[in-house]
């Protein structure tokens, strides 16, 4: 069986060559897994109260016929999830973390570390699994990209992804940075020399002449095969990246919303600065009082803008009308200075007119909103880069499959 053959979904194989590099033939089903040979696996969370090992019988397939014993009614079909590769998988998963000897237990077998046996960490539940228990050959260890255990697959937390295997038949290392079909230059030369040795001398000569014919210089001839040839965009099916392109467009829309939110925040700061200056000018006018008025800096939180869940155009903000804001502040100050506040209704205001140092409710609101925008922008950028990287991997994988099919 060719280890480089595409995965067959009909046979229960859930990973495709388009998801990452080319997958090995392992019907295992998506974030980087951790492999260990250590006798001490990854530290676990504090243990829960010790429980007896579950005696629940294995879940049967829903397609299996119920078996009855004479005098006993046939059991009803189970509604528990069924894993095609692990038909005897107990569901829901056992939750014991320690056995009766106080040893930490792992895997679907709920047994301790066997001492040096290879184990892999699930990205969904962070539990560790023996290779033999999850039916993964030890030679596939270097090919893990992300691993999800059978339980997390049934819970739809993710699917196992594999890195593309080296083109040398007996090598199970991952390809080098996704740039070639080989894990190293040595294996690339080994593979090519093997191909040439199997070919007739006339074919080798014709191949060399063709390569020289299309090489513009000695340097370009020497660099043949150093990079993967690119297919025209028209030859690449849009279906392999259509869903990723949709996700990318959604992230771009979110990014534009965050850019607009930053513009709104900047505009709100400018409006608040103008209002504070206008109020200060009024307070600095000559009066009968000999006391110098205190410098006032209002909170300025905009209820109509930052309490709204929909994006707002910076040019349509209510706080842009400084004269209106000054009138609101005057009405608010008159109400606060009056002695009969209980008998009057407080005026409706667009902004918070409390002193910035005394407003605990909106303390540091400008920095909080700015930091939130920065975090959202960074998150969007990381997700976009990851999607673009996945798109490149899928295109490369399709390109390699295309040229290999021309043999």
Automatic annotation (TrEMBL):
Low complexity bias spans: 32-41
Main localisation: nucleus
Region (Disordered): 1-81
Keyword check for Zinc: yes
Gene Ontology CC annotation, any one: Set1C/COMPASS complex
Coiled coil region boundaries: 241-285
Domain PHD-type, chain residue ranges per copy: 104-155
Biased composition (Polar residues): 56-71
BP-aspect Gene Ontology terms: positive regulation of DNA-templated transcription
Basic residues bias spans: 42-53
Keywords for the protein's UniProt record, in alphabetical order: Coiled coil, Metal-binding, Nucleus, Zinc, Zinc-finger
PANTHER family: CXXC-TYPE ZINC FINGER PROTEIN 1 (PTHR46174)
Protein's name in the database: PHD-type domain-containing protein
Organism: Wickerhamomyces pijperi (Yeast)
């Amino acid at each position: 069986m060719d280890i480089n053959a595409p995965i067959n979904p009909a046979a229960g194989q859930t990973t495709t060559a388009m998801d990452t590099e080319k997958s090995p033939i392992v019907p295992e089903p998506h974030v980087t897994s951790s492999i260990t040979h250590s006798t001490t696996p990854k530290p676990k969370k504090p243990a829960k109260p010790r429980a007896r090992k579950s005696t629940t019988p294995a879940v049967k397939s829903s397609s299996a016929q119920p078996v009855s014993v004479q005098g006993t009614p046939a059991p009803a079909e189970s509604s528990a999830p069924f894993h095609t590769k692990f038909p005897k998988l107990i569901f829901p998963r056992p939750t014991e973390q320690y056995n009766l000897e106080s040893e930490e237990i792992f895997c679907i077998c709920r047994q301790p570390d066997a001492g040096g046996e290879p184990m892999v960490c699930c990205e969904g539940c962070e539990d560790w699994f023996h290779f033999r228990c999850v039916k993964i050959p030890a030679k596939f260890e270097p090919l893990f990209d992300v691993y999800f255990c059978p339980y997390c697959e049934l819970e739809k937390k993710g699917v196992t992804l594999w890195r593309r295997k080296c083109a040398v038949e007996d090598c199970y290392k991952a390809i080098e940075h996704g740039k070639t079909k080989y894990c190293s230059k040595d294996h690339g030369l080994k593979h090519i020399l093997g191909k040439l040795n199997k070919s007739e001398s006339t074919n080798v000569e014709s191949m060399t002449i063709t390569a020289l014919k299309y090489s513009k210089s000695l340097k370009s001839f020497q660099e043949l095969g150093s990079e993967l040839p690119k297919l025209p965009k028209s030859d690449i099916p849009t279906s392999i990246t259509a869903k990723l392109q949709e996700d990318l467009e959604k992230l771009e829309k979110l990014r534009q919303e965050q850019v607009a939110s930053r513009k709104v925040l900047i505009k709100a700061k400018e409006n608040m600065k103008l209002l504070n200056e206008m109020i200060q000018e009024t307070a600095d006018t000559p009066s009968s009082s000999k006391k110098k008025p205190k410098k006032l800096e209002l909170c300025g939180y905009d209820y109509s803008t930052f309490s709204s869940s929909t994006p707002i155009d910076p040019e349509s903000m209510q706080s842009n009308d400084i004269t209106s804001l000054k009138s609101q502040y005057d009405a608010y100050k008159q109400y606060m200075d009056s002695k009969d506040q209980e008998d009057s209704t407080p005026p409706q205001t667009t902004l918070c007119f409390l002193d910035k140092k005394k407003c605990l409710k909106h303390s540091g609101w400008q920095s909080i909103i700015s930091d939130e925008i920065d975090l959202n922008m960074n998150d969007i950028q990381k997700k976009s880069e990851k999607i673009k990287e996945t798109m490149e991997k899928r295109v490369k994988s399709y390109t390699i499959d295309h040229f290999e099919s021309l043999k």
